[in-house]
Fold this sequence. Notes:
Organism: Caballeronia grimmiae
GO molecular function, one term: monooxygenase activity
Shape: globular
Protein name: Luciferase
Low-confidence stretches: 1-17, 330-334
CATH topology: TIM Barrel
Number of strands: 12
Helix content: 25-40%
Keywords: Flavoprotein, FMN, Monooxygenase, Oxidoreductase
Domain Luciferase-like: 46-371
Strand order of the largest sheet: 1-2-3-4-7-8-9-12
Largest sheet: 8 strands, parallel, barrel
CATH superfamily: Luciferase-like domain
Radius of gyration: 20 Å
Amino acid sequence: MSETALSLDAESHTTQAHASAFVDVASPAQFPDSPVSRVFAQPLMLGLFLPIQAGGWSASTLPRTTDWSFDYNADLVLKAEALGFDLVFALSQWLPKGGYGGVFNGEALDSFMTLAALTARTERILLAATSHVLYGPWHPLHFAKFTATLDHISRGRWGINVVTGHRAVEHEMFGWNRIEHDRRYEMAGEFIDAVQQLWAQRENFTFEPELSSWKLNGAFVTPKPRYGRPLLINATGSDAGIEFAARYSDVVFITSPAGPDIDRALEALPAHAARVKAAAAKHGRTIRTLLNPLVVCRETAAEARAYRDAIVAHADEGSFQRFDSDAHAWRGNIDQRTQAAARAVGGNVSITGSPEEVADTIVRLHRAGVDGVQLSFFDFKPDLDFFGDRVLPLLREAGLRH
């Protein structure tokens, strides 16, 4: 059964009486010659989580080169592509003046525009833009046209990390009250249903959603995506988010349900990853899991731990004080001191050690059901160089990279 038919069977809130006939929408993974199929052929997907926001992924004031500017991030993408990385993407945020405070002062590029600019500067790597599909700027017709154009420019290397928005301050900036968690996913389902039809329909398309204010009347989009549709990703840990991923996404961005400690994460991830994949299987679909560890690696374990200790010692207590989120994926049952240390080194799981230790931990994550790692670093340029020189060859030797 097609993904579109499945999305309708799964109690999505589309209104058939107000819609043109739906047609099948093919995933890019169904085309053997697509860039997505090439990436999925890797035993372990390898991605880079770009620091297009001030502070990168680490709430620490220890000096580093990491910078949110376009030139810095473009250099990272080109380096990642040269190293053979499969994928890059970056967050999207809408924050008032001052951001979260401290190093997270709100300075940031837009994810969609940044990755769009890189479609013409790269040749092989997949580019996935994080997009709040419910926020005011987007209408499905705009979204379908813009993304199909970028898919065409990139020759099938364009992807979308679909997010619904989980911070009250962001909703308020667009003049709303925060939409209830599960309802956001229902609205996002309507949006993606419409966008997928605009990508696939060969005739004008009419659609009237039940939950949203936009409508389509005789709408049409060209060019069509090269391989069915762009890559679809979403990040989640909730029941509603997992169901959304099961119906729509090719890749689901997961976090450790046991918090940032890597040993506890390795214990908890097999069941969590299996749950996500089983949800997709109920819809006749295959989904891949992606985890974002921050890597702290030095030539010896002692050097790596000393570096991590220095990062934590410079933890920026002014950051994240204004963070207000109901995103289930980022919750963790950890004490305040552990949480502060985790934020200093990325807020999710971190991997610290020698090249051999880092490679071994990534191997263990793969065995735990993680299909790909979307890496971040504290000091991105030198740390990415070191990873490429010292860790990547070990992943090849372990059979995780072709």
